[in-house]
TrEMBL record:
PANTHER family assigned: LHFPL TETRASPAN SUBFAMILY MEMBER 2 PROTEIN, LIPOMA HMGIC FUSION PARTNER-LIKE PROTEIN
Cellular compartment(s): Membrane
A single GO BP: single fertilization
Protein name: LHPL2 protein
Gene: Lhfpl2
One of the record's GO cellular component terms: membrane
Family indicated by similarity: Belongs to the LHFP family.
Entries under Gene3D superfamilies matching the protein: 1.20.140.150
Protein species of origin: Sula dactylatra
InterPro entries recorded: LHFPL
The keyword Membrane belongs to this UniProt entry's keyword annotation: yes
Length: 228
């Protein structure tokens, strides 16, 4: 018989697992990993209303994507174009970034699988006498290690020609040059920290769903069990 068991700790772990997976996925897909040095406005970049030049803009560069400004015939129209600069995996700017993409992709796939499974832990708490919470926590720990490897290797690619074109000639491995780190890099770090928090918290979720109070509710014949 299926027992639906919901506790504060198990629900919090499920929500955190979903948030972590989406956080890492959004960061990976973003082009805002590096914020390039300011590009001066051209002599044509004039604000028609004020007659003054528009402020310089900052192009951004991600692991496989980038954002830059494109000009149109109309002086008042300036669009920011974002998209992948690499049509395939081999065109990613640096071998280190290729490794970063692999490690992050593996970690994110594991996190997405755990997030999917976590939704069903309300109904199924064990498989083959193994706690799903413990297995998922172990997988989250493994995913966190993949994410750490990817984040460590990423700065080693700052010396590639693509990064130098954005960050200036002084950019090199682990040296930003004229660039600064964008929100996507910090988001990936935050998501990695949360990944390990989820891995640790999964043990608390397992304890909450197998407590004496839960067992008493089951013995009383209840199928829906909600506990604080």
């Amino acid at each position: 018989m299926c027992h639906v068991i919901v506790t504060c700790r198990s629900m919090l772990w499920t929500l955190l697992s979903i948030v972590v997976a989406f956080t890492e996925l959004i960061a990976f897909m973003s082009a805002d990993w590096l914020i390039g040095k300011a590009k001066p406005s051209s002599s044509e970049d004039v604000d028609n209303r004020t007659g003054g030049s528009q402020e310089p803009y900052h192009p951004t560069l991600g692991i496989y994507g980038r954002c830059t400004r494109i000009s149109h015939m109309q002086l008042s129209r300036r669009d920011t174009l974002c998209g992948p600069y690499a049509e395939n995996f081999n065109e990613i700017a640096s071998g280190f970034w290729q490794a970063t993409a692999i490690f992050l992709a593996v970690g994110i796939m594991i996190l997405c699988a755990v997030a999917f499974v976590s939704v069903f832990t309300m109904c199924v708490q064990s498989i083959m006498k193994k706690s799903i919470f413990n297995v998922c926590g172990l997988l989250q720990g493994i995913a966190g290690l993949f994410l750490i490897l990817g984040l460590i290797l990423y700065p080693a690619g700052w010396g590639c020609q693509k990064a130098i074109s954005y960050c200036g000639p002084y950019a090199s491995a682990y040296k930003l040059g004229d660039c600064s780190l964008g929100w996507a890099f910090y988001t990936a770090i935050g998501g990695t920290i949360l990944t390990f928090i989820c891995a640790v918290f999964s043990a608390q979720a397992e304890i909450a769903t197998s407590s004496d109070k839960v067992q008493e509710e089951i013995e009383e014949g209840k199928n829906l069990i909600c506990l604080l």
